[in-house]
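Dock zinc ion; give full complex structure.
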Amino acid sequence: MNKRIVWPVAALLAAALAGCGAAGANGAAAGTGETAAAPTAAPETAGAPAGSLRWLDEYDAGRCYMVGWSEQDNAYAVAAAYDYAAAAVQPLCSLPGCAHDSPGCEAWRRITMGVGQVAADGGEVFFCYSSGGLLNSGDAAADAELAAWQAEHEGAPVAHIDVCRADGSGRRRLVEFPALEDSEAGTLQMWAADDRSLYVTVRLTNDPADSGDDTRALYAVDRRSGACTELAPNVDTPVFVSGRGLYLFEYELEGEGTADVRDKGVQVRRLDADTGAWSDGVHHENSWGPASPQGLSSGGCYLTAAGGGARSLLRADTMNGTLEVLDPDSGETLATVTGLPAAAEGTHVDWQCRELENWYAVQSFELPWGSSEGVERLFLAPRTGGAAQEVKLYQYVSARGADPIYLYDEWNGRLFCHAAYRETPATMLGKDGVPYATSDIEDIYALLPVESALAGADDYTYFTNWPGLAR
Ligand SMILES: [Zn+2]
């Protein structure tokens, strides 16, 4: 593995970071010609209490934020939200009487910029525009479109974060990075937030021929001024947050360099958001159940982090069907969930856990050895511990099996879920110009009371879609 540091990249990035505070303060997005006039100016937050870290995702206070294509003009995307109280998809626009059908709308975004990530926290919505995911994307048309956009807006930085209020007002550029050469430009990713800062990583490609040589630097970005502070020059991907700590997994492998490499254990590492200091959290030795002739373990006992809110360190024991919530620093067991599907010789079992407000949504995948037909089941497990309960509601049923619904978020006793697919016949033009029959598959999202999910009752409240949003 090449550990070479390419200095011009580092120097350029340092220069960018030194200047990024000023860029945020004077609304540098002026050059893009599409920014709302009034910045959400607020006093500097340096020195103010920052509160606990929150994991950043697109769910916040009863809304799921997203960016979709505009039906009216395919050069634009529309920022919108699934609003749970209204059970409707709403464009993020506060302009009175706006029809949300033209570039003057607060919700419209240039589509060529390719919003890489949307996240919300505390009544603000952040849009992360990333260079690394688009340039050299492998899609020549998309790359050409982006190149044309860059030519049109000469000097406009590609990687940046914009922010607006939850209603779409006060949109402004928070922080921007220069248009680094594409082989060096970094993918920008937002991970966590507190009352003062966003915590983001920038991935740098030091050697275009060796992605194993990429490095990722972690920065705190002031939510008001956009000023950046480097917390760690070279980090792995954060997996959850707790208190003032960002936590990462350091995997310990055995059999490295052989065909039989496996996870031996995990060292949890804590990065202090105030000081940038590292400390060791829980250390765990994995144990694995009997392996199939092909080498697939039936199950095991290992550490994992819950997706979604990502505030919990979990010890999954798929041999016994138990899930423990651990204190990430002391290793103390805070809660124990029982009754999840357990592995046995002859069957592989794996779980994926998502953290909701009061529950863990646990997807269990059960696969008999030698079979390619697995069984997927969904459980709700109380975060305070106790027996897991199966959710017997399905989004897709076929002769080959059934897929349970998928749970994303919980708000006021209701779950935001993927409830079904809707398939409608469609016609496409083939490369030879001859039309052929196919089908459009639409994702159906809905709200469902927690009690209904537990009872297997499908009394969904479906969302009213905003018609200007293409699928
Ligand atoms: Zn509008």
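Observed: The pocket of zinc ion is lined by residues 91, 93, 95, 98, 100, 105-107 (CB under 6 Å).
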